[in-house]
Amino acid sequence: MGAAVSRFDPFAIVIDPWNALEHTRPQGMSQTEYVGVSIERIKRFARRRRVHVVAVAHPTKLQRLQNGEYPRPNLWDIADSAHWANKADLGVMVWRKSGDTETEIAVVKSKFYNELGRPGSIRGIFDETKARLTVTNDGAGMR
Q1: DSSP H/E element including 90
Q2: d(Cα 99, Cα 104) in Å, to the nearest integer?
Q3: CB 125 within 8 A of CB 102
Q4: Of 53, 95, 97, 140, which one has the greatest count of Cβ atoms within 10 A?
């Protein structure tokens, strides 16, 4: 990754999805410890190379509610570790109900308000054929 940053000078790197990477966890290290160490290494790399790094991590299997729908996930629902909630500088969730086109994008954690902005959400209709979100509610006035 370092060579690519030196050669191409990108603004951002996206690891999508996190679980598709080949992970070699040291013997005796728990999954939670491994994720925590990995996040710290990514943050150090990003600061040193002055590049924004995004890790896309998916939630565990969510349990259906009594009404048959799935709950809106949060950072604590991300697979493998609570460190995704604890150590992230910015946490963004993208969610839509099964079979629905209305999509919510929510910034649920923002460690540095001045640079990254405050938590909030927008809603829109996602068009899969164009991979475009048409905003229907920009979150103004929502808290």
Answers
A1: strand 90-96
A2: 14
A3: yes
A4: 53
| Interior angle at CA 95, CA 91 and CA 97, nearest 5 | 160
Q: How far apart are CA 51 and CA 54, in angstroms?
A: 10
pTM for the model stands at 0.80
Full strand arrangement of the beta sheet holding 120-127? 90-96, 102-110, 120-127, 132-137
pLDDT score at 13: 93
In this structure, are residues 96 and 78 in contact, taking their beta carbons and an 8 Å threshold? no
Please give the average pLDDT of every successive group of 10 residues along the chain, which has 143 residues.
84 90 89 92 94 91 88 88 90 86 90 85 90 83 49
Contact 133, 124 (CB under 8 A): yes
**Interatomic CA distance for residues 58 and 19, integer angstroms:** 8
Do β-strands 52-55 and 90-96 pair in parallel, antiparallel, or remain unpaired? unpaired
